[in-house]
């Protein structure tokens, strides 16, 4: 039953228009991998018309506790998509 629920959530997210999606970059200042991730996110989200946001783990204790070993972390619609390195093709596929 849990598998069906997860399939429904994925199908529901995938049927959203690009403007209804949200990509979140979780990182910190001075992180070169975070800067690299931002370049990819800006490109892919810009091409697809998907909004994105940036969150700083040094400003949020919960995010720091949850992700400090994985930054940069990329969320798509609130679910973790990847960490450390962002693959442009994989992100594009997740958003289309």
TrEMBL record:
Signal peptide span per the entry? none
Stored Pfam families: Glrx-like (PF05768)
Q: Return the InterPro entries for the record.
A: Glutaredoxin-like (IPR008554), Glutaredoxin-like_YDR286C (IPR052565), Thioredoxin-like_sf (IPR036249)
The entry's protein name is Glutaredoxin
Its lineage reads:
Bacteria, Bacillati, Actinomycetota, Actinomycetes, Kitasatosporales
